[in-house]
Design goal:
α1 packs across α4, α2 packs across α3 (about 30-45) and α6 (about 105-115) crosses α11. Among the domains are: about 5-85, Winged helix-like DNA-binding domain superfamily/Winged helix DNA-binding domain (Arc Repressor Mutant, subunit A, Orthogonal Bundle), CATH 1.10.10; about 170-265, 3-Layer(aba) Sandwich (D-Maltodextrin-Binding Protein, domain 2). The chain has a 6-stranded mixed beta sheet with strand order 4-3-5-10-6-9, with helices on both faces. It has a two-stranded antiparallel ribbon with strand order 1-2. It has helices at about 5-15, 20-25, 30-45, 60-85, 100-105, 105-115, 135-140, 185-190, 200-215, 225-235, 280-295; strands at about 50, 55-60, 90-100, 120-125, 145-150, 160-175, 195, 220-225, 240-245, 255-270. With about 300 residues, it is an alpha/beta fold. Keywords: DNA-binding, Transcription, Transcription regulation.
């Protein structure tokens, strides 16, 4: 019988590319990962890995087993969800990941609702950038999370995760109020300093992509990941920046918000197979109600 934990290591080797990366993801030593994969090969009765120089690659049999491993892991999530449904009570830990804007706006209301309706749930929130969410879900550091992307820079589907839509919002160009114009707003500020998220974040990448589409490369003078800080910098006349509607409900004086055709899309993500878990369903219901209420206000 194949061991599920070893199947997960093989799946992660295919995803991460090196034994060292798999070891880091699971807090193992590289030697321990190699030993576990060797045991998996003996269990499978066929060679799963081959070395090419200093790299390890999957054989055709290893690639087949990885595809089957995804089905097995998804089936285990479904089994866990089914058992939780049979138990009836919505209880136990629920590890939630969310990006900073959501933590500040829609998430608190949802958490209050969950705490009131399901007192046996142990709610734990981690603030993180959406690009970090898939790995955190796969590594079971999170159970459910809010992620987002932009229509100009969509995120590729992930075979290990599922997601449902939550919010589609306008993105604004925040500019100093005394310098606001609605004529081709992005190109209008080609010579202005820009404020963008930290390199590696979706906000940073979409800023570069949007400006390039308008025919120029922006001079990013400041990096900030908190939109309150971004708007304060804009109000001080230190640059212009992209700001989604969720973060722009109360802009400070001195800031004008110019609507763009750019859209940001927020989704609720979880491991494939977990969609019917009572705790995931409870969170989905609560965060949707909180989002509707926030947008209405």
């Amino acid at each position: 019988m194949l061991d599920v934990r070893r199947l997960r290591l093989l799946r992660d080797l295919d995803r991460l590319g090196t034994i060292a990366a798999v070891a880091k993801a699971h807090s193992y030593t590289p030697s321990a990962v190699s030993q576990q994969l060797a045991v998996l090969e003996r269990e499978a009765g066929v060679r799963l890995l081959e070395r090419t120089g200093r790299r390890v690659e999957l054989t055709s049999a290893g690639a087949v087993l990885v595809r089957q491993a995804e089905r097995v892991l998804s089936a285990l999530e479904e089994a866990d969800a089914a058992l939780a449904t049979v138990r009836g009570e919505v209880s136990g830990p629920l590890r939630i990941g969310a990006f900073p804007t959501a933590v500040r706006t829609i998430l608190p209301t949802a958490l209050v609702t969950l705490g009131r309706e399901y007192p046996a749930l142990e709610l734990m929130v981690t603030e993180l950038d959406p690009v970090e969410v898939p790995e955190a879900l796969r590594e079971r550091r999170l159970d459910v999370a809010l992620v987002n992307d932009f229509d100009l820079l969509p995120v590729a589907p992930d075979d290990t995760l599922d997601a449902v839509e939550l919010l589609d919002e306008t993105v604004f160009l925040a500019v100093p109020a005394d310098d606001a114009t609605g004529d081709e707003p992005v190109a209008r500020y080609r010579h202005s300093p820009w404020i963008a998220g930290s390199p590696g974040t979706a906000c940073h990448a979409v800023t570069l992509q949007l400006c390039r589409a308008a025919g120029f490369s922006p001079v990013v003078r400041h990096h900030a990941d908190d939109f309150d800080a971004v708007l304060a910098l804009v109000a001080a006349g230190l640059g212009v920046s992209l700001v989604p509607r969720l973060a722009a409900s109360r802009p400070p004086s001195g800031v004008a918000l110019l609507p763009l055709e750019l859209r940001r899309r927020t989704r609720i993500a979880y491991r494939r197979g977990a969609q019917d878990h009572p705790a995931v369903n409870a969170f989905t219901t609560a965060i949707r109600a909180a989002t509707v209420e926030h947008v209405r206000r």
